[in-house]
Amino acid sequence: MIELPEALTIAKQMDKELKGSVVKSCMRGNTPHKFAFYNHTPSEYEQMLVGKTIGGSKSHGSFILSSVGMNHFLVLGEGGERITFHESEKTIPKKHQLLLGFEDGKYLSVTVQGWGMASIFDEVELKKHKYFGKKGISPISADFTLKQFLALFDGLKADDSRSVKYFIISDPGILGVANGFLQDILFLAKLHPQTKAVKLVASEKETLYKAVRDTLTKAVTQGGRDTEYDLYDNPGGYKKILDSRSVGKPCPVCETAIEKKAFLGGTCYFCPFCQPLS
């Protein structure tokens, strides 16, 4: 699933390869997909994209936004997507949910795996959207200070039941962080995913902040995770500390067997010794 490091990597690559390209053809998917999130009909996609020039591309959390023409934006990302640049039609996948052809003979394909977005919004719709319409602060930017992070805890009441997992990826949430990077963040912070956020003391909050910054910064410099792919179909260089490959194997710190647990609609991986549930 695309998260902040992958979205940032792909957005930079799209900006390099596609900025200034004119769309020659548009196919809104040759394969039906229940969880490919479109917001217009196939003919409307053609009308809004064909003949238009692709402008700059940027990331916003786990989304990739590319300007198209005068006032539209193509929005990709958020879920499991393979967003791939093709020098020719020879490498286009047989199944795809969006395929753009350009006047220079190159292509961009989007293949949804699980769920993912391939929508088009105008400027007004973009600003009003509940996900990427809000500004948010990138957790790898200089503006995401410890003070800003601690302010997220201000809304917690003494009886708040939110787990630290829910706190990080849902409400209030850290922009661009989902279940993928959460595992390493909590491992480095020595926190069990079910620990209640309201119970964290000052030192734990500071350690969690550092874990967020360090994990995401490292992943960005390495082009995302080795289980995700960039615009050129190359895997990232960041190897997760904890994931499905870690279950039953010794913890890299204490050698206790790594465990997994289904929690909040996803699987959590943790060391029961280093990350005790308190």
Q: Please, could you describe this protein's structure?
A:
By secondary structure, this protein is an alpha+beta fold. The protein has two domains: 4-128, MutM-like, N-terminal (N-terminal domain of MutM-like DNA repair proteins), CATH 3.20.190.10; 146-270, Helicase, Ruva Protein, domain 3. Helices cover 26% and strands 22% of the residues. It has seven helices and eleven strands. It has helices at residues 4-18, 42-49, 123-128, 146-151, 164-169, 179-189, 202-221, and strands at residues 23-27, 36-37, 54-60, 63-68, 72-77, 81-86, 98-102, 107-112, 116-122, 259-263, 266-270. The protein has a five-stranded mixed β-sheet. The protein has a four-stranded antiparallel β-sheet with strand order 1-7-8-6. Helix 1 runs parallel beside helix 7 (202-221) and helix 6 (179-189) crosses helix 7. The longest helix has 20 residues, at 202-221. The mean pLDDT is 94.
Brief characterization of the structure:
This protein has 278 residues and is an alpha+beta fold. It has helices at 4-18, 42-49, 123-128, 146-151, 164-169, 179-189, 202-221, and strands at residues 23-27, 36-37, 54-60, 63-68, 72-77, 81-86, 98-102, 107-112, 116-122, 259-263, 266-270. It has two domains: 4-128, MutM-like, N-terminal (N-terminal domain of MutM-like DNA repair proteins); 146-270, Orthogonal Bundle (Helicase, Ruva Protein, domain 3).
